[in-house]
Each structure stands twice: as structure tokens, then as C-alpha cells.
Amino acid sequence: MGEFELIKRYFQHSLQPAGVALGNGDDCALLAPAPGMRLAVSTDMLVEGRHFLSTVNPEALGHKALAVNLSDLAAMGAQPLAFTLALALPRADETWLAGFSKGLLALADAHGCALVGGDTTAGPLNICITVFGQVPEHQALRRSAAKVGDDIYVSGTLGDARLALEVFRGGASLSAADFAAVRQRMERPTPRVALGVALRGVAHAAADVSDGLLGDLGHILAASQVGADLSADEIHNSIATSTILKSAGGQFLPDFVLNGGDDYELVFTAPVAARPAVVHAAASACTPVSRIGTVTASTGLVLRGPGGQPMALTSRSFDHFA
Amino acid sequence: MGEFELIKRYFQHSLQPAGVALGNGDDCALLAPAPGMRLAVSTDMLVEGRHFLSTVNPEALGHKALAVNLSDLAAMGAQPLAFTLALALPRADETWLAGFSKGLLALADAHGCALVGGDTTAGPLNICITVFGQVPEHQALRRSAAKVGDDIYVSGTLGDARLALEVFRGGASLSAADFAAVRQRMERPTPRVALGVALRGVAHAAADVSDGLLGDLGHILAASQVGADLSADEIHNSIATSTILKSAGGQFLPDFVLNGGDDYELVFTAPVAARPAVVHAAASACTPVSRIGTVTASTGLVLRGPGGQPMALTSRSFDHFA
User: Fold this and answer.
1) Which of A12-16, A122-126, A222-226 has the lowest mean pLDDT?
2) Are A117 and B43 a contacting pair at CB < 8 A?
3) Are strands A227-231 and A300-304 parallel, antiparallel or unpaired?
4) What's phi and psi for B33, nearest 5 deg?
5) In this complex, do A143 and B42 lie within 8 Å of one another by their Cβ atoms?
6) Own/partner pairs for A308-311, CB < 8 Å, 24+ apart?
7) Cα-based torsion angle of the residue sequence A97, A98, A100, A101 in order, rounded to the nearest 10 degrees
């Protein structure tokens, strides 16, 4: 099977939304966002042995490779439009390709996101996706837009993917049902696209939680030149901490919640007056959100323990070269 | 040096053209093409040991990684606007990063093309660039637009990069000056952006010659459902065959010219009535072009030898998995 045959067999994608003027098969794709729209662009690279193990289910990997990129669009409030895929493969393994493309294109179809081009090459397994989404001109959720007094929210639950990793590493054990649930969170994360779009005009700042809550909230705080006050108890008692993680034992709290990574939830800020609008946005997107703290004028992040006293912070936001 | 420090030190790019609404540092970049414009998107991945050797000069590699992407924009007649860079590195080698970013950003500056986002990770060396360019709504040079009777042209010279590779492999020898010249063609190719833009409204179809003239012209013919008639003599006597390649010996002709690859020239078709306009476009872009054949109604490609008789064709368009 040659390169062109490989593309034709596994990555032919007939989806062509209105904003795509020319799909794959030429030197470039042509995107045509509507007047007044912004095209959001994000790129992520997944490397075998670093972001996933060689034993991972290829269908789950295809899902995840696109999901992590869609999560970046969600964090801007952008509606997915199209993506490109660059793929380095040790060899053209048809079973792997069939599974990978199935998982990838199923998620693409679910979000109306067209595969419009790419590159395939031989080499150590590497998946590089660049995704494009549309957002109206003045409604993008930027990291720099948090205001003092804003509430801080996070979607879904945190730390479950990290708990699954711990089970794989032998550091924790779970019932089969609980393990299946957290493994799903690690291998097939749900990008919060509907929530991001619903938060346009409601939230001030947003980021996706890919490297851990403290690290990604930290990016918002730094970009907005503000601080934050969080309560560990409120986080653990909110829906943001899953019952599975709570029942897995206190030694994983609060570290997995605060620094777990691979969550692909949204952390965002919104003014106090927007509380009903946040509740409405969360309900319309069928996505639970938890209010976990407040944006403060003093730069830096304070995490308060049970008695309200500040806890020592250990942000271990993932750094590939640290 | 951590990941964020790495990005800050080597890939901070202050260029923000009018069409870029938000550059790097957020979850996504925001591009804002003008009304009536199309955003052309292309992605290419370069893998160590496959597309370049570990001994390559990092500055030249930075140049080439972007150049091959800009070449795709050129083939659509698109003006470069912005690009993303995903980089897997075995380690954060500062000498390598300094050279690579210097070569990359110098070429980006030369084309007004802003680095607006990306990803860095540990892993086997892999460079994945996705580039965005603008082209007016109905002026993109598509592969499918060749018409029967069109002239076929190619820019610059063909086969020089392939000759440099042959010298590296020990299969040919050249004077130091000639080797330096063809090595430059291999390591620091010139994307024909100005020519592509100048050919808007003049050329019908275009593609960039990255895999060899026959292979890439073949893509135009297949997409346009037409054929081509080329004369080997005319090609060798035209400026498309460099004096260095001619003097290197007949055993490399016509193979390196027709199937060399890594040329990053443009092959394009234009109506006979547009001959003066093609000459004008080439002059305005300071890029030589050669007229090398004609588009025919019969599908397939005929290459004629000295007496006008068809020659056997061996298109060895590069396939990573064949």
C-alpha cells in the first residue's frame, strides 16, 4: 500500500461544511469563514511513548488525537470547522490505520469538523493535528480577559485520567467498573465544545485543562495579571471531584485534582452577575460545571485548606523538557 | 530549560500582520482574512533520517521546514499570512534550537508570515508546520483547472537538489563551486511565492514540484482529466535544466530533471493567449520559467525523445510507503 492509497483508503473524508471552500487533494485546503468571524487555529503533536503507549487501542488514539485539539477550540468558544492531519508511521499497518481513522473520523463527524489535508510519512509514530474553528469577531474567550471579582469555574471532573494512569502504573487499584470509567476519561476524553460555544458572551476568560488545573488556571492569571483564591474543600465537595477519585483514597487528593493533567475540561472565569447565565450555558451544553473560587487583585494563586488557611502549592504543570 | 522557556527563548515572534487578530500564547491563534478572501492551509511533516540527516545545519533545516510549506501556498497563488510549528525534540539542545529558529524566522520575516502557535514535546526529532495564506475567492490556482491546449510551464531549474544528493551518496562529483550551488538548492530551497501570486488570473492550474516533475504534473493531469505532451529535448535545452546538471553528465538526464524531487519549483498550465502575461508574471516575480509542453485531450503523459518519438516513462514520484 502506497502513500496515496493509504490516504485514499483511510482518510477520505466526504464532510464539507459550508465554511470549507476546498477540501483535501490540492496543495492547500481553502477555508472560508463567514464575514465577521475569526478562524481559531490550534496544533497538537502526540508522540508514542510520551503521550500514549504502543499498546493503546488505535481507535481510542484516533479519538484522543482530535479530542485534545477540539478541546483547544472549546477553550476559545470556537465552533470546529476543519482540521489537517500529519502522520509519521513506522509502517503502513492496516489494522492500526483502520482503527485509528475510525476513531478519528467518528469524532470529526460528531463535531462537523472536516479533514481537509495533511501529510503522511515514514518515521517514528507521531500524530500532528492542526484544527480550525470559527468564533464571532469579539466573542473569543481569551486567557487575558479575567477580571478581579470574577467567579472561577471548572467543567466536569478532574483527576480521573490521572487516577487511571496510576492504576496502570500499579500505584492504585479500582473495581473493574470504576477502572473502566476512569480509563475512558484518559483514553477517550470529551472535548467541551458545546460548553465553550455556550459560554460566548457569558465567560470572560477560559483555558482547557490539559496540564492540570493549577497550571492552566495559572496561564489565565498570568495573562490577565490577576490572582485567584481557591478552596480545596469546595473543590473536593463539588462535582469537580468524582466519587471514584474520592473513594480511591485521600492520598490522591488534592494532587490529582489540582495537577492531574489530561482532563480536557474547561477552566473559566465569569462575573458574579453572570451566575444564572453560567448555569444556563452548562445546562444547554449538558455539561456540569463547579464554581471553585474567585479572581483576586493580588497576583498569585492561594489555595485554602479546611480552616481557610493557605496551603502550600505544588503546581507540577507538565513540562516536556523540565 | 523548560518547555515554556524554550518557546519564549527561541520562538517568540513579534510579527503580527493585519490578517492575524491574535497571535501565539492563547489556546488558539485567531486569523482574520479579509472579506472575499480564502485562507489556504497546508501542513508538512519532516522526520529525521527520512527528510533530513542528523548532520544537517539546523539553520538550513529551519529554513527548509518552512520553505516546503510556503511552496504549497505558492502553488495555490496564496500570500503567506501565518504558520504553526509542532516540534518533537529528543532534548532541548540550545545550539540546535538557536540555529533552527534563526533559519525558520528569517524566512518567515522575509515572507511576512507570522508564527502564531504550536506545540513542543520530547520525542524523536519531528518538525510539523501548518501554514496559512490568503488568496482572493476565485483566484486560487487549483490542480483541477488545466484545459486542453494549455501550455505547460515550470519555474527555475529541476534536478539540482537530486544531483546534490547524488554527490552526498558518492555517485557523482562536482567542483566545489558547483557542489555549493546545488547543495544550496537542496538545503535552502526558494519557495516561489511571488510567482504564484503573480500567476493569479493568468495560470489555470498549478502544483509545486516536491516529488518530481512527472509525479506532480501527473496530479494536475489526473485532477483535470487531461493529458500532456512534453519534449525531453525542449526541457533539457531550456533554462529548466541547469548548466551544472548538464555538465555533470548525461547519465543523470533525463531522470533527475523528470523525477528528481525536492525542487520546490512550480509546474503550471496557462492558455496560449496568456503567453505575454506569463512572461510578465515571471519577470515581475524575478523567477525564470520555461515552457515545456502542451495539455492534451487524451489522458496520460507522453514524453517525446529527440526524433519526436514517445519515450518510455518511469515516474518514480516519491512514496513513503511503497
Assistant:
1) A12-16
2) yes
3) parallel
4) -65, 155
5) no
6) A308/A231, A311/A232
7) 100
A241 occurs within a structural domain? yes
Q: How many CA atoms lie within 13 A of A68 on its CB side?
A: 23
Q: Do A144 and B26 touch (CB under 8 A)?
A: yes
SS percent in chain B: helix, strand, coil, step 5: 35, 25, 40
Domain contains A318:
no
Cβ contacts of A14 within 8 Å, gap of 6 or more? none
A274 lies in the same domain as A295: yes
Q: How many residues in total does chain B contain? A: 322
Verify that B147 and B208 share a domain, yes or no: yes
Query: Computed over its alpha carbons, how large is the radius of gyration of chain B?
Result: 20
> What is the reported pLDDT for B64?
94
The grid coordinates listed for B321 are 510507503
User: HSE-up of A233 (CA within 13 Å, CB side)?
Assistant: 7
Please report the residues numbered 19 through 48 in chain A whose beta carbons come closer than 8 angstroms to any beta carbon of chain B.
21-22, 25-33, 35, 38-45, 47-48
Q: What end-to-end distance do the CA atoms of chain B give, in Å?
A: 40
Q: What is the CATH number of the domain that holds B53?
A: 3.30.1330.10
Q: Position of cell 512527472?
A: B214
Residues of B in contact with A28 (CB under 8 A): 40-42, 72-73, 75-76, 78, 133, 140
Q: Where are the alpha helices (DSSP H) in B267-316?
A: 275-284
Please indicate if any CB of chain A lies within 8 Å of the CB of B145.
no
Please tell me the distance from the alpha carbon of residue A260 to that of residue A30, in angstroms, as a whole number: 38
For residue A33, whether the previous peptide bond is cis, meaning omega lies within 30 degrees of 0, is no
3-state per-residue secondary structure call for A121-151: EECCCEEEEEEEEEEECCCCCCHHHCCCCCE
Does residue B148 fall inside a structural domain? yes
- State which amino acid sits at residue B70: L
Q: What pLDDT is recorded for position A270?
A: 98
Domain that holds residue A39: 3-136
Give the model's pLDDT for residue A276.
97
pTM: 0.88
Contact B235, B257 (CB under 8 A): yes
**Phi, psi (5° rounding) for residue A299?**
-70, 155
CB A285 within 8 A of CB A233: no
Say how far apart CA A318 and CA A305 lie, in whole Å.
24
Which 3 state secondary structure label does DSSP give A161?
Answer: helix
